[in-house]
Amino acid sequence: MNNNYELYKVFYWAAKTGSLTKAANNLYLTQPSVSHAIKQLEERFGIALFYRNSKGVTLTQEGAMLYSYIEQSQILITLAEEKMAALKNLDSGELRIGGSDSLFKHYLLPYLEDFHHNHPGIRLHLNHGTTPEIITFLKEGRIDLGVVRMPIHDSQLQVRESIKLQDCFVTGARYAELKGAILSLDKLLQYPVILFSRNSRARMAITELFQNYGYTLKPEIEVGSVELLIEFARKGLGISYVTREFVAKELEEGSLFEIQLDVQLPPTHVGIMTMRNMPLSRAASSFIELVR
Amino acid sequence: MNNNYELYKVFYWAAKTGSLTKAANNLYLTQPSVSHAIKQLEERFGIALFYRNSKGVTLTQEGAMLYSYIEQSQILITLAEEKMAALKNLDSGELRIGGSDSLFKHYLLPYLEDFHHNHPGIRLHLNHGTTPEIITFLKEGRIDLGVVRMPIHDSQLQVRESIKLQDCFVTGARYAELKGAILSLDKLLQYPVILFSRNSRARMAITELFQNYGYTLKPEIEVGSVELLIEFARKGLGISYVTREFVAKELEEGSLFEIQLDVQLPPTHVGIMTMRNMPLSRAASSFIELVR
DNA sequence: GAGGAGCTATAGACCATATCTATGAATAAT
DNA sequence: ATTATTCATAGATATGGTCTATAGCTCCTC
């Protein structure tokens, strides 16, 4: 390289300490090295930068001019290095996650709490959306990772399989007669079914399953949140198709019960998506580590 | 050195151009060198700074953070280098000269005009004072050079001998009878003598000369400027002791004439003083070059 | 003054490493 | 497919940064 920025660091310390010897100590160099470095700078500029005497060095007029620029420059570099250290230590930075509201609330929440507790300096951005939206966000670089239901097939994405979820039909006291019974699909269809809105992944999966058995699943009620699925089933408005793990509390306390079917409902996995071949931010990789 | 600031320059160009190849071209390096440099930075921080793809590179979140600092830093360095080039080319800077008013006006003025014309970017500071004051200014670093009458004996100073000046006695039409005559010192003392103020170098020199011949020189009138010395002599108030070169115009036009003496008055030299062992500013050394 | 304790400058040797060439691998465009 | 980009990697080379040893200078102390 034609001119070496390293020399500015030496100059900075020499000017700051007023002594080549002290500069050398600060830089873990020997005094002759510093002397040589300053001389190089002076020769390069064709301008004397320091007055030398037996007490040390002081800046010349021109040296002082140079210092006024270099000082700022060096301070910025120091700040930059501190910032990078903070980013590495997860004392600073941000983590942008995309996912569905229900996954945030019922699956990620404890991890998010934990992560935030351990790394309060990292700002969390949660972006909810449908799976295709999340994928778009990822590809546009607006989020670091997406948490969605598998399967995902996209060669640009890397998907890590996470927790296994089991969807099921649940209802409340209004249909207590079904408790313990093992229903067939057509029997189930005689009851009002409550499903999540049309474009959800779970909805598509269960609709397809019914179709494979020759039935058409058309919901009595269609809602936009898991909360409402639970609430409506409890109130007796019908049978909700929900993720079992998300109604653990209600099943436990008995306000909902699961309806046994004579067919096996397919489990789904949660996938953590990131861009393939793109390095993860420290925060993102640390979070993924935590979740898995 | 433990960490190399040179890498930041490479990082800056890679980020700025979005391409390692372009960065290499800008830096007159090869692409593998740049690739290697970036890799080093990333390993040093333990953080990926760029996403690489077949079109080039783009900053990661953390890389963008680093860039926000480094960009400013690099801009400052560039400005610093431009400033230094300007100082070297004498397009910028300042020149601080100490001297007596009379030397500024009658000796330095044309040089100052010339210098200012050639280097309009350099600010001129003229500080007038007595010789001891000028020396103090020099030692305090408040001026770059001093222009005074020789001899100067001070081991801290370097004195360059400049123009030779000859002091002499002059008067106007009122004492026309003296024109062409050759006076002795005691004869001169019968006329009213006008001298410069007590603490001037020229005054001390001529007083001492009279003393060496056994006479006491006491002025009729004592003035504070060379202008008044000239003016008073012209108006016929007495015989002024002035520097011949400074009254060249008046001698030429005949409004003053020089009085011949039977003794040789000692010539003095103008000296240009600078601090010994201290590098001169570009402006100062250029000006000294011009004057000599 | 002599001697000591600072400071910086200089000379010469050494080796770390920045840089190069040559090549590979991956992607995008023709 | 083929060509033209991009960046990554490996290995060789020589530049030049850094060291040790020493000298020169100034200031201070005895």
UniProtKB/TrEMBL annotation, chains A, B:
Residues 9-60 form the HTH lysR-type domain. PROSITE patterns: HTH_LYSR. Keywords: DNA-binding, Transcription, Transcription regulation. Belongs to the LysR transcriptional regulatory family. Signal peptide: none annotated. It comes from Paenibacillus oenotherae. InterPro entries: LysR_HTH_N, LysR_subst-bd, WH-like_DNA-bd_sf, WH_DNA-bd_sf. This is LysR family transcriptional regulator.
